[in-house]
Amino acid sequence: MSKAKIAVLVSGGGTNLQALIDAQGNVITSGEITLVISNKPNAYALTRAEKANIKTAVVEKTSGQQAFEDEIISLLEANDIDLIVLAGFMCILSDRFTKRFDRRIINVHPSLIPSFCGEGFYGLRVHNAALEKGVKVTGATVHFVNEIPDGGEIIMQKAVDILPDDTAETLQKRVMQQAEWKILPASAQLVCEQILKGGN
Ligand code: GAR
Questions:
Q1: CATH code for the structural domain at 4-196
Q2: 10 Å Cβ neighbour count for 67?
Q3: Whose CA is nearest to atom 9 of ligand 1?
Q4: So where are the chain's domains?
């Protein structure tokens, strides 16, 4: 295998997907994005994938968690995917799914885990919680995905200062620019390298 095949799972705007696409050939040399799956048919992330000539699929959660995951698993297997990257994918995956792809799923979360993470902490809610608490530093984390939401082994983290006038929106943007868009591609490369070496 010359490059690991990466599937990116998305739900929204897809700026992290864009960072991964832009990192291909420079930061990401050991992997290639060959599939993007969205659970939302109108996610802008799908347009980003199409513009980059990456195959896309939409899998909506219409008839329960198991059927939803089975459809995703079929797509991953049919496309020989080696690494699954959750990039703003707003669905929690079951034990059954995460165990099947042990150390083959990574996620980017917009805080320094273990702060402001777990079920219910996603998107702007994470930044609102950080502002409410009054922390002066936040950041982003990339971690392996296991059966505990945001609980898997940490791969990379990057800290970002909170400024006095920040709103959840300004903070989200700074965390993306200074942390997420850097550590997600770097972590994807690291894990792809490990996969190519046949290791864990
Ligand atoms: C990102 O900030 C990502 O870290 C966060 O959602 C945003 C998606 O933006 N993910 C979570 O909160 C997961 N718990 P994007 O669609 O522009 O990449």
A1: 3.40.50.170
A2: 12
A3: 88
A4: 4-196
